[in-house]
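So, does this match?
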Amino acid sequence: MQLPIIDLADLGTTQPPKPIVDTVRDAAAEFGFFQIINHGVAPDLVAQVWDSTKAFFALPHDDKRNISRSKTNTRGYYDRELTKNARDLKEVLDLAHVPFPELDDTDPRNFHRVDGFNQWPDLDGFRSTMVAYLQACEQLSLRLLDTFSASLGQDPQYLRSFFDQDHTSFVRLNHYPLDDLLSPGEAISTTPLGDMALHHHSDAGALTLLLQDDVGGLQVEHDQDWIDVEPIPGAFVVNIGDMMQVWANNRFRAALHRVAPRTDRERYSLPYFFNPSYGTDYAPLPSTISPDTPPQYRTLNWGEFRQARADGDFADYGTEIQIAHFSV
């Protein structure tokens, strides 16, 4: 079984065409995942992003740790990520939405009171490439958001109101090495590695755009089985997150996914997490509620939900918060 492949050549920037809306709706309901082609992100930019990603992870380990993220600044490098309270075999660099690309990150307008500020490696062209990519992903995500809104019976522009200039989207650069990056002494004193490169989970936000390389390993849960997400050159993998499942009142599902470990080749991937402003309170959309389908969730606040999930990336706090905790 393979995920649907959706051609966005006719999507445009205004009213999403009904055939695309219907196809996105069916894919979101059946799988929670699909792949998109002809999405409008320039191939040259994608190539530059891959080059910058590999250049960053090729830096000495200590240089990467110089821009490590922390509990007080969620933007930066990390090599001890936890998923489901198990350590993943990967290293990451998180870079958040830049509202004003012409300003550096010391300007208050590019400093988020919760997330802190982006930390950029000393690599030529790295910042300009990643900021351009963040902007391109933002525009593509907004166009996709319109199709989701329309597929749930709302005005196509309805969900955009939650994604103002202070939306909390970010791109994550992932590198999955073949061996543990931590020294034996460090490994002993931290959470042990699990049996997956990335353990099963659903994404917390609205939707995710993923670029993956040709190595493979991404798998999606479907009908109690795991489907391999075959790499397609130039395509994005799209998956819905917990927020979209709540908005859809369970019409769509935020599918569990994981990355199986590789023993022959390192893997790289670039997920862009499209998330709203932290002040957003979300609940099932009015168009999804009827006498036969009452609300399945009580209202959640995105900032509180995201903070609880982010805390679990750093340490084992027991049961990881899920939208199921907010079921009616």
Remarks:
- The mean pLDDT is 92.
- The two ends are 33 Å apart (CA to CA).
